[in-house]
Design goal:
Among the domains are: 1-65; 157-270 and 280-330, Protein Transport Mog1p, Chain A (3-Layer(aba) Sandwich), CATH 3.40.1000. A hairpin with a 2-residue loop joins strand 4 and strand 5 (256-268). Helices cover 38% and strands 18% of the residues. It is built from nine helices and seven strands; from the N terminus they run H-H-H-H-H-H-H-E-E-E-H-E-E-E-E-H. The chain is α+β, with helices and mostly antiparallel strands and 336 residues long. The protein has helices at residues 2-7, 11-36, 39-67, 81-88, 109-133, 168-175, 180-184, 233-242, 317-327, and strands at residues 193-200, 209-216, 221-227, 249-253, 256-268, 281-293, 302-308. Strands 1-2-3-7-6-5-4 form a seven-stranded antiparallel β-sheet, with helices on both faces. The chain starts with a helix and ends in a 9-residue tail after the last helix.
Amino acid sequence: MLGLLLRLLPFWVREPLFIVIGSVFGVRIMYLAVRDEAWVPGAIGVAFLLATAVRVHTVVRAVRARRNPAPAVSADGAVSDAVVRSQSQPQGPAGQRPAPAAPRKEPNAWGQAVAAVAVFAALGAALWLGPNLLPSGDNSSPRSPSCPSGEDEELPSAYTGASRAVTGGQLCEALNRTDLARLLGTPTETATVVSGTSDTALLTDGKVARPEAEVRFDTYTVNVSATYNELSIAQYVKLMEFGEETDVKTLSVLGRPAVLSSDHTMSVDLGLGSGGSGGPVGQGPPARTLTVALDGKDPGGYYEITVWSTSGALPDDGALVDIAETVLPAVPEQAV
């Protein structure tokens, strides 16, 4: 379609335009061919330049013909019949010659040159702005992994009690946000691992639902869990005080009681590749946890948002509060 439109342009617009396009494309393809040592693109670039040279020759001949007009001459050197007939026509009464025909107005060369430049500028602008204005089907930037669908997941019986708990997949959908890395203070990172599981709490004989989800970045790992027991935040804080835990801070998040605490993750050496059976469970890097009640009345049950890194570095407490205030409202409410 574009080629047809170009061929409909006047000669003095079309040919300079083809020359400019052919020169740019030919030189560019030749440069890429030499840089990548690829001979097929080199041959294509040579073809572009040869076609451009032919068009330059055509334009030069046309310019010379306009500057030096001459009567058409046949192959044997005789003047054309049209010229002979014009000379043999009667010259009118009293030997007067007929008035010369009005000269045909030639198109303005400068106007055609400006038009050629304008058309080329429009095409260049379309090629330059096209990728930004049109949606692209191929995005080379890394994408965050998707959460597991959980459609075929068989939930433990603890999830079908009087109050139905959310699943690990639902927690994962709420946690796996495009702005999670920004909330952590590492906006350029993309999640590398995403997971969600619907398990039960330890030491409860499978009677307490505890779904969890995890999103891992290069710097930090974020884990969100929900425990559906009868332990309130106030009781949770008393247990911390009884255990003489330090770095504990009570606060309110989303109008609900909450508490910040620190602990260490667990480190397990599986002994892969060493021929051994692995080592004992050890102490991993420190982690910071924000525990928030399921609702403002604090009847029991809570969410836990835990962040850690392999380097031992932790974001400030404000980052955990921001994550809670962003993620928890996106968790589906319990169906009573």
